[in-house]
Structures are given as C-alpha cells and as structure tokens.
Write a structure and sequence with these properties.
Elements lengths: L4 E5 L5 E5 L5 E6 L17 E3 L5 E7 L6 H21 L1 H9 L1
Antiparallel strand pairs: 1-2, 2-3, 3-5, 4-5
Helix pairs in contact: 1-2
C-alpha cells in the first residue's frame, strides 16, 4: 500500500501527496496552523480531509470521478497512513508544510 503514494514539494514550496494507482489524485497538504477556515470535522470529503496530525489535505485534483462513501474513507485513511509513515522517515516534510 505504501508504494501507492508519493510526497513532493513544488517550486513554490507547497507539499503535495499523490496517489499513483486508481483512483488517482493529488492534494496539497496544509499545516495545522494554516487550517482552512470552516473545517470543523474530520468527515471524509473528496475536496478536503483533516488528518489525525491536524494537517489538512486540500485542493484535491482527481483523475476522473472521485470515489464516495466507504471507498473514499478507505483511500483517505491510506493517505493518512502514508503521510504518517513518510513524515516519520523524513520529518523535514512536515516542517516544510508548517513553514509554507
């Protein structure tokens, strides 16, 4: 499962997470201090999702129709697991999000 994710940094310093298998998507990762106004719950949403760390997946770009329901929740749980794993191995990525 962890092979299905890539974390990257744009030229402007924004951090993105990318799912490399169907359904494909990319999302910008925002730090807890930059949480989007109006996000009050961790409910799964194809537009934004709050991780257990307080980071926010936002500005999703889905290739094709985004999934719904339990399938969407599973994919977002996998994204969270990938974020936790990758940032544990490379803590500077989480700091980049905080600083950007």
């Amino acid at each position: 499962m962890r092979d299905h994710w890539v974390i990257g940094v744009s030229e402007q310093g924004a951090v993105h997470i990318v799912r490399t298998v169907t359904p494909f998507f990319s999302a910008k990762v925002l730090g807890p201090a930059r949480a989007i106004e109006g996000i009050e719950s961790e409910k799964a949403d194809a537009k934004r999702h709050v991780l257990c760390t307080g980071h926010v997946l936002h500005d999703f770009s889905w290739r094709g129709e985004p999934p719904h329901g339990a399938f969407l929740e599973r994919i977002l749980a996998e994204a969270e697991e990938a974020w936790l794993y990758i940032t544990a191995m490379h803590p500077h990525l989480a700091r980049l999000v905080e600083d950007h």
